[in-house]
Write a structure and sequence with these properties.
With 365 residues, this protein is an alpha+beta fold. 51% of the residues lie in helices and 19% in strands. The protein has ten helices and ten strands. The strands form two sheets. Strands 5, 6, 7, 8, 9 and 10 form a six-stranded antiparallel beta sheet that branches. A four-stranded mixed beta sheet has the order 2-3-1-4.
Length: 365
């Protein structure tokens, strides 16, 4: 229980770090563009309940009481009216409004996404440079389940969990030699040398005409690390980051039926922060390196999700700015707010759906 709590704390800190880096991307680009950033907050909540960490570069840094993300107040990303509302909402006195070019506002909007991609690449680079590239390999093959329809294995005495060491004297480590041996002996006996608990024994089976004996095969894997030089680590981490980002985009397009779906990427793979936190806590207990890889994966998923053209997300700002560029004027504040509220409800429904999946289809199960 204590290790799970420590893992959960590590997940919370890791997720908060990803949020801080994301918001830092918005903040630093906004400042470099000359925008006013009155508040940089880790967490949400009113100022009177927040810990004010200090003021730097015309920005008040806060640690707010609700640790569900963070934000940078950017009054000049909208129009003059919304700028005054944003300033007052975050406890800052309004300033003379300055209209920034669309390209600068777009840079600020995508900066958080870019920062998440950089963080993921940096995490992978650290793993590759310090420990090496993780490579999984099969250590043993076992009986995952015994069928009652094709009952050859069950009648011979095979049980779920039996580790298969050899088939007719041929060593079995990964499943393929076992499958090949069974398929090459239809109607003929095959001697399987197995380990059950700590004892070993021989069990003879006679595959049917299809080379089947009625078992589901599983295998155990282990991880080894292949050393890499710093330049190799830099190249490999960059390639993997962009490759994995592309796979996330493709998986989302598959869920939307825009492209052929990716195996395992369906509605049941949508999870909430609750399920992700539980999975991350268990991963932290198992392997710190795997935990860092998970953080890199979460960072990339945050980047892809945030850049989708959905109001309330960074991609929504890009969408609004693109429309403004095409029309020569922005959508009205009322229209933008209606779209934001509509998609806010959709995102809340998605969150509830993720909670349901956390219960029905836990991550890693």
């Amino acid at each position: 229980m204590i290790t799970f709590i420590l893992g959960l704390a590590a997940v919370v800190l890791g997720l908060m770090a990803l949020v801080v880096f994301h918001e830092f991307g918005h903040w630093i680009v906004a400042r470099l563009c000359g925008m006013w950033t009155p508040v940089f907050s880790i967490g949400f909540g009113p100022r009177k309940y927040s810990l004010v960490l200090g003021k730097f570069w015309d920005t008040e840094f806060r640690l707010s009481p609700i640790p569900l993300g963070g934000y940078v107040a950017l009054p000049e990303m909208g129009d003059e009216t919304s700028a005054e509302e944003i300033a007052r909402a975050y406890g800052a006195e309004p300033r003379p409004f300055k209209k920034f070019p669309i390209w600068q506002r777009m840079l600020v909007a995508v900066a958080g996404v870019v920062m998440n991609i950089i963080v993921a690449a940096a995490l992978l680079f650290g793993i590759f440079a310090c420990k090496g590239q993780p490579t999984q390999y099969i250590t043993s093959t076992f009986v995952a389940a015994v069928s009652q329809q094709v009952n050859i294995a069950s009648q011979a005495g095979l049980q779920a969990g039996d580790v298969i060491l050899s088939a007719d004297g041929k060593t079995v480590v990964d499943p393929q030699p076992l499958v090949d041996e069974l398929h090459s002996h239809p109607g003929k006996p095959v001697v399987l040398h197995i380990r059950r608990a700590s004892a070993e024994q021989d069990i003879t089976v006679v595959p049917n005409a299809n080379g089947q004996i009625g078992i589901s095969i599983g295998y155990n894997v282990a991880t080894k690390y292949v050393p890499m030089s710093v330049p190799q680590a830099a190249v490999r981490s960059t390639k993997l980051t962009f490759a994995f980002t592309g796979k996330i985009f493709y998986a989302i397009a598959g869920m939307a039926h825009l492209v052929p779906s990716t195996p395992g990427a369906d509605a049941s793979s949508v999870h909430s922060i609750v399920g992700i936190a539980a999975y991350g806590a268990n991963t932290f207990k198992t392997s710190f390196v795997d935990f860092l890889v998970l953080l890199a994966s979460i960072s990339l998923n945050l980047a892809v999700f945030n850049i989708l053209p959905i109001p309330m997300l960074d991609g929504g700002y890009v969408l609004f700015f693109s429309i403004e560029k095409l029309r020569g004027k922005p959508l009205s504040v009322q229209t933008q707010n209606k779209l934001k509220m509509f998609f806010l409800y959709l995102l809340l429904m998605l969150f509830i759906f993720g909670i349901v999946n956390d219960v029905r289809h836990p991550m890693g199960k």
